[in-house]
Write a structure and sequence with these properties.
Order of helices and strands: EEEEHHHHHHHHHHHHHHHHHHHHH
Structural class: mainly alpha
Radius of gyration: 35 Å
Number of helices: 21
Strand order of the largest sheet: 1-4
């Protein structure tokens, strides 16, 4: 029976029933299949469902990509001399095989989607071509790169198990793991802007890590064979950088989150404007020519450029990386200081006996220094009383000075010159100590940019509530003591609750001391002095209560209550100032985001003008999606500018810019290139006006924040001097 009136949107349920040909006494045996449903979709809706399934599969690939990046981080730091090297290689080989099986299973799921497209006679759709590309890429990664990585890791495990002529070296296995991760990233970035940003950030971090490793190997081994190998690897790094940019540009999707897309586009353009690929190839040439110093300087700059690219799309990652780098630098300073002290205390004979050991330790320290991941360090923010704008700190000079001192120390150690080596070690330690100070300052400022003052405000609010609680309990005890004294009753029964309250206060004071030791805070000492005086008065009250000296206990409780009230007032002032400063900092941060997006929009508009001028024909179809994307960016940035609407008029020029952009699109569609350029020039002027208005407001907000910070610091300094004067008295 035919169903002739079916239409799009209808669902048909059906089941298959089969009866046997030779019935028994009770009739034929009947078997029915499960019920199936078929929903009839339009081609557009059907392809939309296919795209959703494809996106789910790409999400699974994203998880595998993250695992593969983690595997690379593990393999690249394997130490052949470690006892666990063989076992680690075996574990990583198994991991690669598991990932390989997962990719083959996902490729099978993609094949089912392709078969579904063919069954519905839409295999010629662009979605089919995209799915076939994904399927082939997955199989290629599984059968070639992952299989190779697993094989190399098993080989390394075998080399470690045997005591043969071949030395263990995980570099080839790490390269294979890295290649698989890179290829997976090229697939993942097709999913969405969020995945594209993540892949861009992770790959930029990987490139920086590999570049830092190449930098270390360049200065360490200058033999002809090593130079040839390093030059080849440096060129491969340039190829992967170009491949990353190409894949991102080719797979860019403009449909969702236009401001995030714009930020990624501008970051890619900045990476290209920095001539990253060209500098990598130049470094390869310099290595081949034996110009190690020039190559090393280029490589150091490339590490910074790549990290800046990562952090341009991931601010939280910048802060986390900076904290890790700061901790590593602190450890580096500590170990360098210890090594210098050990060398200085060695006798000549001991130095001669342990020279090789000391040299190896210094070599390891230099490797840690040259492989540090440190992005560009900006100039510190201008303080209220600064007469000139601060300059960017000499981070690169300090790094170079520390490296030069370590290199000289190694030369002196090799020559057996103890005193000369000690001098160079001292210089290295001094440069590193100065560098740590700069990074500490920067980490505080970046923490404020990332998190604001929320931690300080929360801590201050917690202190306020605790002090209020202690004061309320103490006043309650004071009233009970006063009532008992008025009725000529014994007060020793109140000694226990007074003792409990005193111990709570003592714990609070102990926590304050620990907090100030871990993270010095100028607000804590003035408060702590008062809280300790309150604790002393309360302990005295406990003794008086036990001795039934009610009048004396009342006086001591009143004294403690007055001190707690004074401490409460101090913390209240601190909390109000911190709250105001937090509001200003977060407002300034929001304005900064809006200003950054406006800067990206202005830059993109200028690029669109250049692209329009470069049109060779009247066909502007390739530019129209970019114009539509820029218009959506203006629509999305408008709500961010609402918060400054009461201070500056940004709405009017932004509306004019959007109108001019629409006029430019109309002109291009009508093949009028000159009118399109005129409209874009006017739009660019309006956008630039908005950008500078928001930029000026950001400076004004920063100035007010500096005033509040200055007042807060002044109040804290006054309280500190009062505390110090009281201590002297």
């Amino acid at each position: 029976k035919g169903l002739l009136d079916l239409k799009v949107g209808d669902t048909v349920s059906f089941a298959i029933e089969v009866s046997d040909r030779y019935p028994g006494q009770d009739g034929p045996h009947v078997v029915r299949s499960d019920t199936r449903r078929i929903t009839f979709l339009s081609k557009k809706e059907y392809l939309k469902q296919i795209q959703k399934k494809k996106d789910r599969l790409l999400s699974r690939i994203l998880t595998i990509y993250r695992q593969q990046r983690s595997a690379f981080d593990s393999v690249r730091v394997l130490e052949p001399a470690a006892d666990s090297y063989m076992q680690a290689c075996q574990v990583e080989a198994i991991r690669q095989e598991l990932v390989r099986d997962q990719l083959k299973e996902i490729a099978l799921q993609v094949k089912l989607l392709l078969d579904d497209l063919a069954a519905n006679n839409v295999s010629d759709a662009p979605e089919g071509e995209s799915l076939e590309h994904v399927r082939k890429a997955l199989l290629n990664i599984a059968e070639q790169h992952l299989a190779n990585a697993a094989s190399l890791l098993r080989h390394q495990s075998g080399v470690a198990a045997k005591d043969g002529e071949e030395s263990p070296d995980p570099s080839s296995a790490a390269a294979a793991v890295n290649t698989a991760a890179r290829e997976l990233g090229s697939l993942v970035l097709l999913r969405s802007i969020d995945m594209a940003q993540e892949v861009y950030a992770r790959e930029a971090r990987m490139l920086a890590q590999v570049q830092a490793s190449l930098r270390w190997r360049t200065v360490q081994d200058q033999s002809a064979a090593a130079q040839s190998s390093l030059s080849k690897e440096q060129n491969e790094l340039a190829q992967w950088t170009a491949r990353l940019v190409k894949d991102l540009n080719h797979g860019m999707r403009f449909e969702k989150r236009p401001l995030a897309v714009l930020r990624l586009i501008q970051s890619i353009k900045n990476l290209q404007a920095a001539l990253t690929e060209q500098r990598m190839r130049q470094a390869a040439v310099l290595i081949t020519q034996g110009q190690v110093d020039q190559a090393e300087r280029l490589q150091a700059g490339l590490v910074t450029t790549l990290l800046d690219a990562e952090f341009s799309v991931r601010l939280s990652g910048a802060y986390a990386t900076l904290i890790k780098t700061r901790d590593r630098m602190r450890l580096l300073v500590k170990v360098q200081t210890m090594l210098h002290k050990q060398c200085a205390e060695m006798s000549a004979q001991t130095f001669e006996e342990r020279g090789a050991e000391v040299k190896q330790a210094q070599q390891n320290l230099r490797k840690r220094l040259l492989t540090l991941l440190l992005p560009s360090v900006p100039a510190p923010r201008a303080k209220l009383l600064d007469e000139t704008f601060p300059q960017a700190p000499p981070v690169q000079n300090l790094l170079k000075g520390a490296d030069h001192a370590m290199a000289e120390a190694l030369k002196q150690l090799a020559a057996g010159q103890q005193q000369a080596a000690i001098v160079q070690q001292r210089k290295a330690g001094q440069s590193l100590a100065r560098l740590v100070e700069l990074v500490d300052r920067w980490s505080v400022e970046m923490g404020i940019q990332t998190l604001g003052l929320s931690t300080l405000v929360a801590a201050s609010s917690e202190r306020l509530s605790r002090i209020e609680e202690y004061e309320a309990k103490l006043v309650e005890l004071l009233e009970k003591t006063d009532t008992a004294a008025a009725e000529d009753q014994k007060v020793d029964g109140l000694a226990e609750p007074q003792q409990i309250l005193t111990e709570e206060l003592a714990t609070f004071n102990s926590d304050l001391i620990k907090q100030n030791q871990l993270n010095p805070d100028q607000d804590i000492p003035p408060l702590l002095s008062r809280m300790q005086r309150a604790e002393q008065a309360m302990r005295a009250a406990v003794k008086s209560l036990k001795a039934n000296h009610a009048d004396q206990a009342i006086g001591q409780q009143e004294q403690a209550a007055d001190i707690l009230a004074e401490a409460f007032a101090v913390v209240t002032r601190q909390n109000e100032q911190l709250g105001l400063l937090q509001s200003l900092v977060m407002f300034q941060r929001s304005v900064g985001f809006a200003n950054g997006y406006m800067g990206d929009i202005v830059a993109e508009q200028q690029d669109m003008i250049v692209a329009t001028k470069a049109l060779k024909s009247d066909d502007a179809s390739g530019l129209l999606p970019r114009f539509a994307h820029l218009k959506r960016c203006m629509d999305d940035v408008a709500p961010l500018l609402d918060m400054v609407a009461t201070r500056v008029n940004t709405g009017t020029p932004l509306v004019f810019a959007a109108t001019d952009l629409e006029d430019a699109v109309d002109s291009l569609e009508n093949n009028d290139k000159l009118d399109a350029l005129d409209a874009q020039d006017v739009a660019a002027e309006s956008l630039d006006k908005v950008y500078h208005l928001v930029k000026e407001l950001r400076f004004q907000t920063g100035y007010i924040a500096e005033i509040v910070d200055f007042l807060h610091t002044s109040v804290s300094d006054t309280a500190m001097m009062e505390y110090q004067q009281g201590a002297l008295n």
